[in-house]
Design a protein that fits this description.
single chain; alpha+beta; Nucleoside Triphosphate Pyrophosphohydrolase; six-stranded mixed sheet; five-stranded mixed sheet; 4 helices; 20% helix; binds zinc ion; NAD(+) diphosphatase; NAD-cap_RNA_hydrolase_NudC; magnesium; NudC-like_C
Amino acid sequence: MLERDLAGLADCRAGYLIRVGEEGVADNGQGGIVQSPDRWPQGAIALGRWQGEPLAVIAETGEAHWPTPREWLARLDERDFALISTALQVVRWARDHRFCGRCGGAMRQRPGEFMMQCTKCGLRSYPRISPCIITLVTWRDRLLLARSPRFAAGRFSTLAGFIEPGESAEEAVRREVLEEVGVQVGRISYYRSQSWPMPHSLMLGFYAEAASRELRVDGVEIEAADWFDANTLPGLPPSYSISRGLIENFLRGTARRE
Ligand SMILES: [Zn+2]
């Protein structure tokens, strides 16, 4: 488990390291992403403590073919997701916030915090986290699953979308479901959340009971949608995704009721 006590690591220069490239994350030679303890290279950013020892991330360029984040998520234990998710998001933040968005001045990280501050005007920048809703719409024992044109052939999934400024998560669930498949939603209940570092989403999982059943697919974000049951399931999202968790958890519940 990653202990997020950054304040105690402000002067730390050695410990475990995660190496993040432009496309992938380095293997440690034993199937994991955490490299053996050593002196940290220049530019390493402390992330916290892992197994009691300091852990940092370094951004590298020109890597060979390191596994992609998605390949790692399929491979790692779920308890290690926080490591790769934190490393990827902190590296992206440091890379994309080198200059102030207000005055163009250089930004510098404050040691012991995930905070960059403009050296000219003082504007502060924190790692960006973009909240998204992801929802399984249900009607009795039926699941509403849809596919985006970007999906692999035959795969369907739950509906998802970014929360817009000024909107609550529940409002985003109702809006996204109506926009994407034309269904009105009744009762909404919270499931759980998952950090999704491609590139910096926080997925908030919900169940939504359908108040109407007719589907009207938007044809842009969604190219097909349908009602399924446990015996007629299409190809599903990968096992590590919260989308799959929403589906499996619902199917376990309906199996118990029979
Ligand atoms: Zn500035």
